[in-house]
Amino acid sequence: MGQTVKNKKYKSASTTSRSKRRNRNRGGFHFFRFLSRIPAWGIWLGAILVAFAYAFFFYYFFVDPYSFRWKAIYGKPQYPEGYNIRGIDISHYQDQINWQKLRNASINNDPVRFIIIKATEGISLMDDNFNENFYQARANDFIRGAYHFYVPGLDTDRQARFYLHQVHLEPGDFPPILDVEKIGNETPQQLRKNVLRWLTIVEKHYGVKPILYTSYKFKTQYLNEEVFNQYPYWIAHYYVNELRYKGAWAIWQHTDCGEVDGIRGKVDLNIFNGSEAELYQFTIQEEDDDFLDPAAEEADPS
Question: Is 181 noted as a catalytic residue in this protein?
């Protein structure tokens, strides 16, 4: 009696399984019957629409946001018209530089007038080539600048003091520069507060307004408040004929794939928004040479 019940259960389960398979097969059969009723032109039209949707999706999410990278690989840098005061910015990524060649180099038939050099990052990282590059830039008659790469989440006062301890600007140099590219784990409000804090500390030390470097997109997203407009802007915006930012700006980094004699590989190219006389006026002047001892910055500057 018990054996018979088990067999019935087994048969019932087996029948159910076969029934499910048949239903699945019927589903596929019905799908193909549905396709067979669609005219050939309808299938072709559907395939074209699917291909178009895929191409649009791929371009929108993978090509357009990084189009400047594709242009950097397959294209040539553009040289914005109407500007002839040109410069570059460098770091250890440019490795060893042939300064003799660089001294006589030109960009789009214009001489290289200024060089901006990475100095510090965060609270302890100094660029490996900073001291050499900073010295050679002055020795080879370039206007030079030095920037700090801001690291969100690290103590702002320590970042400012670290820059002041490592960088000793002189009259004829560009004002101090803060490079802000990332928001990290900070909120937009925290980022703006900390960036303003760094600028305030360094301005008090040197007695000049620091330059604020950022990209066009980052500027409009996070640093578009009126309080930052008191600082000269150095804006990165690649592969466009004109800078879309409509406010005042001092320097435009217009490409990251430039080529200059004396430097192996690619280098960032920049233009200054002004004349040669305005370029020299933009630098730290002799009357501004009332700098504090960096150790004095240990006190709260506010």
Answer: yes
